[in-house]
Amino acid sequence: MHNQEETVAHWSAVARAMAREAMQADPAHDLSHLDRVWTSARALMSAYPQADGVVVAAACYLHDLVNLPKDDPRRAQASRLSAERARALLQPAGLDARRLAAVEHAIVAHSHSAAVAPRSIEACIVQDADRLDALGAVGLARMFSIGGALGRALAHPEDPLARHREPDDRRYTLDHIEIKLAGLPATMCTEAGRRMGQERLAWMRAFCERFAQEWA
Fold first, then answer.
1. Strand partners, 26
2. Rounded distance, CA 38 to CA 161, Å?
3. CATH number at residue 143
4. Which of 4, 24, 48, 90 pairs as cysteine with 95 (C-beta 3.0–4.6 A)?
5. Residue 29, phi then psi, degrees to nearest 5
6. Which parts of the sequence belong to the HD domain (predicted)?
7. Is residue 57 part of a domain?
8. Domains contained in the chain, number
């Protein structure tokens, strides 16, 4: 067990250093995001002792190497491009072929827009950990950061919670919660991921109610 923990610690440090040098960062997809994803993944792994921590760590830190804007027509390809870059970095560093393939799959499958189902527990953990960072207080901050970068308004001027209109997150950032984020907990692969996701979503919805009060 001690040697296994040392191996995971080694590869997590290696992958983190690679990400720091190679990733295309923005305020919502930076090294602190990767650190949080790895922290959540470790919490999720506690229920799955069979999961390969090396694969999970490498995928957590390298899943956003290619970060395309949300409105980029190539957005659905970002995870595949990240997986290819991850292999190009990890292979010369000595990661074995089985783990290389597993890391690639976990990176491709983590993306909501790629629509690739995770086929391993490692991919499930990485997907859930990344989606958890889109929820809760940090997820809200990241959402508004991305919306601002895309030039979108905070919310609809008269109906911020879209109670009498169709939500449109291409114009109003707050609408993104109901259009996409509210559905994330149901997509989680792990029981803990679903539970944590629901807790964070409940907080976001409470925020929305307070937001609407102040917006009025």
1. 29
2. 32
3. 1.10.3210.50
4. 90
5. -135, 75
6. 30-135
7. yes
8. 2
Q: What is the CATH number of the domain that holds 81?
A: 1.10.472
Query: Is 198 a member of any domain?
Result: yes
Q: How far is CA 181 from the centre of its chain?
A: 11
The answer on 208 and 174 residing in a single domain is yes
- Residues 173 and 143 sit within 8 Å (Cβ to Cβ): yes
* Angle subtended by helix axes 2-22 and 53-62, to nearest 10: 10
Residue 189 belongs to what domain range? 136-215
What is the three-class DSSP state of 29? strand
* pLDDT value, residue 180: 96
Beta-bridged to residue 43, according to DSSP, are none
Residue 23 backbone dihedrals phi, psi, to 5 degrees: -75, 155
Residue 81, Cβ density class (10 Å: 0-12 exposed, 13-18 middle, ≥19 buried): middle
Percent of the chain whose pLDDT exceeds 70: 99
Nearest alpha-carbon partner for 155 in 144, 145, 164, 146 = 144
Q: How confident is the model at residue 1 (pLDDT cuts 50, 70, 90)?
A: low
